[in-house]
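Quick start: what a row looks like.
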Amino acid sequence: MSKLRAQNTISGKEGRLFLDGEEMAHLKNIEATIEKNKAAIPIMGRRMEGHKTTGASGTGNTTFYKVTSRFIKIMLEYIKNGQDLYFTMQVVIDDPSSDRGVERVTLYDVNFDSVKVAGLDVEAEALEEELPFTFEDIDLDNALNDTF
């Protein structure tokens, strides 16, 4: 019988984020989700609707420590010049204390939805900037071990 060993759980701190190949060391957190688009299908003789998947949508959110103006500059490229920039983002999970392996998820055509262009907070120990985004494709380059 398989059993989970505590040391094989993955630490949320053991990872990296790359944006177009550049490590984003000021990352605080990231989450990306794929949501299926479904159509409701009424079926004769059934009281419950069926559901057919008709596509999918990729969205995410990331928070960085405010140490650069890079994201404001990205938004200004669109506002001033009409150039909407898209990126490749790679999220790497690599906890050396776990024997589950390394996971690399690559998101393609990442586009930021909004950028905080100014902010101060007298109670904040460190300023942060949250960036919601969309993405249009994904690859799983390495996967964590499935067997225990």
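That is the whole record. The chain has one domain: 11-41+49-142. Residues 11-41+49-142 form a domain with the Pnp Oxidase; Chain A fold (CATH 2.30.110.40).
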